[in-house]
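seq:
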Amino acid sequence: MAPPTNPQVHHVDGPMLPHLNHFSPTSSQTDSILPRATTSLVPILTPPISSSSSGSNPGNNEDDNAHQYLLVPNTQRIVVRSAHHGKRVCDLIPEGEGVTNIRAVALAWLPRHHVENEDSEEEQGEDDDEDASEDGSDDGEWVILAACTNGIVQEWSVAGLSDTSKSLGHGNIIGPRRSFQLTCTTMKDLDLIHLTSASNEEDTSKLLSSDGAVLYGLAKGPDNGSDGESTWLVRCEIPHFLSPTDGENQSKLSLSVKPLVSVKTVSSKAFSKETSENNHVCLKKKDCIFGIMAAYRPSSNPDDNERMDYMLDNNSDNTGAKGDVFVVMCASHGLVIYRDSLHTQKFDDDVDASPALVHFVQSMKSSQYYSKDQSAFSSMAISPGTKDLALGRANGHIEVLDNVFENAANYFDQLRRTNIAEEDSLQHPEEVTVRRTVHWHAHPVRALAFLTAYGRHRGSTNDGKSFANPMSLLSGGEESVLVTWQLDRNFHKPSNFVARVGQGGIVHMVCCQYSGKVIVFCSDNSVQCYNGSNYDRDWAEQGLASMALHDDDETQQDGPRKGPVILVKDPITKYPMLTNLPGAPGMVHWYNPKSSSVVGTLEVAPYNRVSRRDPHTDPHIPAPAVTHMAVGQNGKDMVTVDTVWTENTSVGSSYDLAGPQGTTAMNMCTSIKFWSYVDSSKGVKSDQRKRRNGEVPMSYELVSSMAAPHGRDGEVCALAVAPNGRVACTLSQEEDAFRVWVKNTDASPAGVASTHWKCLYKVKTPSGYANLLAQGATPASSQQLVAFSSDGTVLSVSYGPYVTLWDHSNATLLTSVTLDDNGSVSRASESIQSVNFLTKNDDVMLLTGTSQIGVKSPFGGVKSCYLGNDEWSFDVGSFGKEALISAVVPLYDFKCESGATGGFFAISITLDNASKSIISVISRDEGSVVCAEGTDSPLQWQVDGEVQSLCLDKCVGSFIQLLAVTKDCQLLSLSCGVDGFARKGRAASLQSTTRDVRAQAPVLKSGVATADAQQSVKRRKIGIGISRGSENVRNTSGFEFPALSGKFTSAFIAKSLGKSS
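struct:
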C-alpha cells in the first residue's frame, strides 16, 4: 500500500510579467518588492544546449537533440519554457532561510575548473583548435543566477533542465544547485536589485574571464559604520562549480562583491555640476534606475598600444582579444554609461584612476513639446556587437545612439592621455554621437530588441543564416503591434508591421541570434514566436489571462464591479472553463492545468481593443465581461450572461465612468446567450481556418440570444441551469424578479424557423420578501442566488436571508428556509450568498453566507426533523473577527471508505484581512473536516491571498485535486493523496463522532411513525465551528422518502410543510 501524502499546494499559473504591465508608470514609482516597469526580471533566451553535454552548440543548429529554453521570471519563481514549442518545462524556485522574493535574474557562462598542474601549452593548443570542436562542453556551462532578498544569489545549471524536458507541467520543481551570501566592505545586509552579465554569447564569455562568471549589479543597503543607506554599482565573480566528488561543500558559499561607483540623488540645481564631474551615478530626485545592461565590445583598433591595458587575455605575446565591458544604466530621466576596466579586474589595483563614467543629459529637440513624464525613458536595447543603443520613450519616440560605445571608449582613452588642463578640449560622447529619432507608437515604447543574422556583427559570412537584413530594430507597446525598423535603409518609417499580436499590449520581446526567432510577450499572458525573416508565427502559448488590459480603478467609477473569475469544470472535455478573466474580456477559456496553457477559446462578446488616443487625457473604453456562466450536466448546453459598454445612451443602463479629465457617460447592455455543443468533426470552415492560424476555438454555436433579458435597466445578478440543460433561471435585482427560460425540443415544421430557447415566465418578488434582494444581491459577483435541485424539479431563489423553493413547472412557491430557524433577528439578518444541493440521492441544501454556513433540509426546516442529527450550521467567526467565507464548491464525486454516503464540499475561509485562505474538505453527514487514510492531519490547504473560486479537477480513489483562483488571479492546484489509495472520511476533531446512517424524512410515509423511531437526542457539536440551532431533534432513520419530484410532492410540501415555517 502506498503511503499517504499530505495536502500540497502547487502554483499552476498567474500573471507572467506583472511588473511589465503596459500601463505601469514610466516615472520613478516603486513598490515593496521591485520597481514597476523594471528590466531586472525580464525573459531570457538561452543558447542551444546539447543534450549530450552541458555546453552550448551555436555553430550547429541542425542538432535535433539541442534544447533551447525560455526563462520567464517573476518575484516567486522562474518558469522555464521550451523555445521550440513554448510549453512549460519546469519551475525554478529559490530555497533556503530568508529567501522570500526574486529581485533579478541573469544568464552567465561559467568556465570549468581546470587542474593546476595541467600543461598550459596543451591548454593553449586546445584553445587554438576551438573552432574545430563544435561542442564547448569541456570549457564551461551556462548557469542561471537569481538575486534574492537578503543578499542571496542562487544558481541553477541550464544543462540540468534537459532532464525534465520529457515531462512537461507545473509539478516539475527544481531547487538551486548553489547559494551565495553576498558581502561587501562598504555595505552591510545588501540586496541586489539588478543583475546582468556581459557573457551573453559563448565565444565572448570565454574571453571575459577564466576564473568564473563575472556579474554586474545594483546593490542597495545600509552603510558600514553609519545609519545611512547607499546604492552602488557592484561587480562580483561566481566561482567555478566543483563536483561533489571534490569533497567541498558548496551548498552555501560566501561571495564578496566589489563596489565600482555609487549612485547619488542630487537636486536639479546641482545636477549639471555633478554629472560633469562623473564621480557618481547622478539621478534626479524621485528618479530610479529601471534598467541595467552589460555588454562586451571588442576593440576596433587592435594596434593601439593604449588599448593593450584592457586586454581580455594577458598573454605574453599580446595576441589576445581586446575590448571593454560597458554597463548601461537607464533611469526614467537619465542615462549613464560605465566602462569597466578589465585590466583592473585582473590586477585589482588602482593604476587607472581616470573616470570611467559618462552621463547623457541632453534632451531631444522634439521633447520640448512634451511634459517631463511624457519624455521619460521606458525601454532600452543594445545592438549585437555593442555598437548602437536604442532608447524608447513614454511619448512613443525611439532614439538610436549610433556608435555610442565607440565614442565613449575613445573619450575614456583620450581622458587617460590628457591632463586636467586639457580636459576642456575633449569632446563629450554626447556631443559627437549621432542621434536618430523615429516615431510611430502613440503610447510608451515598452519593448525594444535588435534582430540580426548570427555572426554578422562579428564579421561572419555564414550565408546559411543570412535570413534577414544585417540589422533590424523591433519595437512594441500598448498598441499590440510588432514594428520593424531597418537601420540601413528607410529608417524614417517602419518596414513591416504585425498587427494584433495579442489581446493585450506588448510588454517584452527577445530575439534569438542563432535561429532568427522573435518571441513576443503580451500583457494577456500570451507568448508567441515569429520567424524573423517572414514574420510567420511558429507557435503561440496562451496562459491564464490574469493581467488586466487596462488600468481601470473600480473604486473611482460609478459602475458594477467586475467580480471574480468564474471557474467551472467542463463535463465533455474535463478541462476547467474560466471566464471573466482580466486579460481575456468577453472570452471563455478551456485550460489544461497539466501543461499550464489554454487549449480552447470561445468568444462570447466580441471585443476590438482600441488603444487610447491620448494616454493622459482619454479614458479607456471598458472591456466587455462574461459575468455569469452555467453548463448542463452533460455539457451540451451552456448559458452565458455578458455585459458590453457603449456610447449609445439610448440602450442599456447608464453609468458615469471616471477618467483623467472627469466623468464620462456610458451605457452598459446586458445580454443572455444560449450555446449548443457541436461535434468537432462537423466544425465550420472558419474554425478550421482559425486552428491553422494557431487559435483554438471550441465547438459551440450560438443558438439563441436576447438583449436586455430583464428590461433596459435590468442586470443579471444570478444564473443557474438545470442538470438536464433544458431549463435556466436568471435573477435581476433591478427588475426585482426572476425569469425561467426553457429549451424548445419540439421539431418545427419544414421551412418554419423556431426559437431554440424562450422565456417561459417572469415572477416578481413575492410579498414578504420585498427589498430583501437588494440587501445581498450584487451584479457580477460570486453569488449563486439561484440553483436547481439534483433532479431539476425544484428551483431555489434567495432573497436576503431567506431561500425560497419553487416548482418551476407551474411557478408555485413551495416553502422557504433560512440558515437559522430560531427566528433570531441578528442571526437571520445575514444574506445568503450561495445555495447548493449537495448530493444526487437526496436534496440536502448547503446554505452559505459571508460568515455562516449550514446544511439544511428543504422540507420545513428544523421542525420537520428531516435530516435529524445531520442538520447543522456554524459560524466561521471562531477563526477570528475578520474570517469570511469566500468560496464553496460541492464535491459530488468525492467518496470515503467509512460508509458515510452523504455529500462533501470544499469551503474557503479568508483570514487576517484576506491575506491568507484556508481551504477545507467537509463531510455533510459529519460536519467536520475529513482526513486522509492513516493520518490525523485534516484535509486542509493554506494559501496566501483570498481564494475567490474553487473547482474540483480530479478525484480518483484517495487522490483529490482542486483548482483555486485567488483575487490576484493566481491559479493554484490543491492536491492530496495518491491514485489508488482509498481515503477514510472521519472527523478531524477528536470530539467529533461518526454516523453511518443518514436520517430520512418521516412526513411522506403513510400511517403512523414506525417503531424504529428513537427518542430525541442532543445535537452534537460541529468540529470546525460553533454549532447553532435546536438542541433537541428526533432521529427518524427508519422512514423512507421518495425522490423530490411529481405533483404529489409539490402539493404536499406547499400545503403542509409550508404552513409550519
